[in-house]
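Attaching the record inline, Q. Sequence:
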Amino acid sequence: MATRTARRERPAPQPEPTPGHNGALSELHIHGLGSIDDVTLELGRGLTVVTGETGAGKTMVVTGLSLLFGGRADQGRVRAGVRAGVEGRLVLPPDSPVWARAADAGAEPDEDGSLILARSFSAEGRSRAHLGGRSVPVGVVAELAEEVLAVHGQTDQLRLTRPAEQRRALDRYAGAAHLALVEEHRAAHATWRALADDLDRRRGQARELAQAADVLRHGLEEIAAVAPEPGEDVDLDTLAKRLGDADALRSVADTARLALVGDVTGELGGDGDLPQDATSALATAERALAGSDDPTLVLLAQDLADAVAVVSDVGVQLASYVADLDADPARLAEVLDRRAALTALVRKYADPGEGLAGVLAWSADAADRLSQLDVSDEALATLEAERDAARAELAALSARVTAGRQAAAEGFAAEVGGELAGLAMKNAQVSFRIDTDVDQPGPDGADEVVLLLSPHPGAPARPVHKGASGGELSRVMLAIEVVFAGADPVPVMVFDEVDAGVGGQAAGEIGRRLARLAREHQVVVVTHLAQVAAFADTHLVVDKSPDTALGVTATDIRAVRDEDRVRELARMLSGLADSDTGQAHARELLAVAAGRQ
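Structure, as predicted:
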């Protein structure tokens, strides 16, 4: 059984990021993923390479990183009956934008000041994400990935063959102001298309739209004739009940007022034999207590005085209520007629249960739809003018976008070509062809951008996806990434076998450039080339062996140094770790790498 790296209870406190670095991933723990049972990787700053035999599971490291930062989980990679997981420890400077987003999610730094991320998932496809000890949606972690991680693999080479991706690369090189201009162009294009489509729709469906408008107009006129007010139906129901029950309500209110204050005006027909009212009784009790010298009784007398005031006030309000009651049959008939008119509107224009609010909502929506159905000559002329103005604005923006691309193309091609010269393609020439069709602008402009490559003098410049071999395409992609790397704010960059199809001198140059990237970023590279691995600051080897106890193949990841590293490089060079010739070549590569970084 392969020996697995033991996971520590807590790693040693992490140092603050060194100058030139904007953060790093110091630790990665993977369990239950693919052939990996349980391993912990200590990732150093600078350049980390991951090597191993074909099929050993090197790409599981990249998979683990992608999953940790919100990537979609492939349930086929999770062992049956096991809940797989990935955990990582980020060391970030205090001013990193990641901290603000993490705080918004309720995350907190660990005791050593680092930020802990975790992702777990089952074979059934369910997954959970945690950030700084808090459960968060996976989308939150994916947002952080934009500030932390950039993964580049062989699929990036496939994307590079698409003209749209080549145009995006050129736009990115042109800078933030140009990218903002492209966004403005997208918005203007959407506005123009919406106006043009609306005009075409109205002209092509004039008869149908006019008929629909008539229906809406009739409904709006019917509602306007009644002129309902918000909440009026509820108010009318209350008023109708009060008018219909005026006599009964008056009797109830008079009985209550008589009990509280008595027949002080004689309006209630009292005959002098009425029981004592509440006000008189309370007043009698208050006077009796107030005449006492006992402090407790005096305080109670004050409470009774307050009660007399409350009862008297209620009596006044009851008198006002009775005075406002109106048993006028004509007024009641008027209210009932109004309520019937509103009920008719509700039945016709509101959904069940919506009431008058549904009528008002239908009216507002109908008015909005009616404005979109207007096919009168005046409306069409106004819409046509708006469309033409939007098209003119779009044309002006398209011209500015094209100019920005043309200005950036030469510098971008020159910088990529300079990098290719160091990747054993010194005679290669890179250029852009920008074809502009002002009559057919798209969301991103009126340009079709094609990256051209001439591998050697005399060779015609052809689109890179047609004129480049697999190895050349890898080098073009790496050259573009090197050009962009200086301005890329993410602290962690991952390259998954981008050196496929490359060998010889070019392989060494790829290693040197990756090491150069590692001066400003933490770079993790999965590679099969010893020339690249020789430049590593940290060298991890993936080993695979049968686990007879579990009946599966287990993967172990270990760091190699000194002679173990020489043996691994010798294996990569000759297939024989113990070959004297291979080891001599490995030592030579290490010496060359140490002298050329």
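The two ends are 38 Å apart (CA to CA). The longest helix spans residues 377-421.

More tomorrow.
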